[in-house]
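Hi there,

I know you've been waiting on this one. I reran it after we fixed the sequence typo, so this is the corrected version. Both the input and the resulting structure follow.
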Amino acid sequence: HKNHVGLLRAARALEDAHGHAPVLVLSGSDQGNGAHVRAEVERLGLSRRVRLLGFVPQEELAALYRGAACLCYLT
């Protein structure tokens, strides 16, 4: 569905290389991968930097985009 795990690993690499990483706000309905994503957040030690929102309605998603420093669209 979405490559959240790839983004989490990139955030871990940024923190390891530079001592900090951005706060990640991840959206999307659970397509059967939610438990794995949550486990990766914990395994990578990113729980303070990751917000798992689940499904976000279109009107709220637009507000998230407006407030974001960047948007990562991973495939």
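Quick highlight: The longest strand covers residues 50-54.

Best,
R. S.
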